[in-house]
Task: structure prediction
Amino acid sequence: MACFMVERMSQQSPQPSDMAAPSGRAIRIGCGAGFSNDRIEPARDLAERGELDFLFFECLAERTLAHSHLARRRNPSAGYIPMLRKRLEATLPGCRAARTQIITNAGAANPAGAAECAADVARQLGMTGLRIAVVEGDDVLDLLEPATPLLEGGRLGDHTGEPICANAYLGANVIADALDAEADIVIAGRVADPSLVLGPLIHAHGWSQSDWERLGAGTLVGHLLECSTQVTGGYFADPGVKEVSNLAFVGFPIAEVSPTGAATITKLNGTGGCVTRSTVIEQLFYEMHDPSAYLTPDVSADFTRVAITDRGNDRVDVSNAAGRRAPDNYKVTIGFDGGFFAESEIGYAGHGAANRARYAAEILCERMAVLHGIRDMRIDLIGVASQHATARPDDCNADGRDVRMRAALRTSDKDLAEALLMEMETLWIAGPAGGGGVRGRVLPSIVTRSALVPRERVKPRFTMMVS
Result:
């Protein structure tokens, strides 16, 4: 496998894409993943039957990236999304045959390692000459200082715990640049979710990187697609209220995007779920703070005048998104070592189950306080009082016939975390009658905070590898 550096940095001052628009036709782009462990077979369907120009995999939640950094600390060759291999094994043959380009942020904390994985998959599939762009520049830990303000309040130096990682949300420009350089696959780490769609649109339609109206329109499309099935009926269905058929085999979404940025959201024929005005509207409002200023690294998008028209047959048109100049700063997510997270449960059933679960919680709290010095735990009576994080078992007077008592704590001391599991397990025979089904685990804990970094200090770039 050959590897060479493309010295062209992503433009910090918006410039036109180097690629001319392809004869004014609509571009077809599909979402093949909305989170790191999303289903694979719908993505394979898109690759084989979608007639796509682009297929993207959005795989990074904030804590997913922080845990990826921890994984790379333990093993320098790890740190990318482990499911990337299976995802590419399923989709790369169809994408290669259809000349569909792939874009993903599954590189997480190790985009170069993810690219090696992609090259290995290509080799096993008998493919040669695959051009894989590795996007870097999102790791900005070295740019942070103790005086860096945190958006949640305070400064970086005030926070307890070691910063594990700090990643800026890169934008679409570096993706467009990599596609201009004829990448078959673009693998990034932290990129703003809608930028995974906007980058291909800038490249394919030849949009100027300062055409704020079209960038706003493309960002809308990316926002609607980024969570895969959330726009095709997943996380939407409510039997008796919002009916969705065949959700067991729900299809992943496709957008047909015109050179103006107007788009049609749809899915493959024969797949489950639905694309309706209602599913699109619900996804439009997902994680939406200010519809008039939806901030990304690429644009300040305005969705207040968006038109949504249901054409029937799982086809919904969206248009009229607008945009203004991009923010002066990149958002940065900082992951801190939060010590250890412990949680454990025990179940009670039958008459008086809630009272027995409540008594078990009292016993557990007393032993943790007296023997281990822990007086701050979360207690939930699942089935009775779990929705609002009831911390005191006696706050709930309702009874239930099937109740699980759950306890959780976060601590820097692993022995204390394990003590919670031990004390819960003793309730089998030293607690109220009829306890059973004890489960527990101790996990590394990640705490995330946010900051801003001036965009001129962040240097997005890419390296091209050829398998």
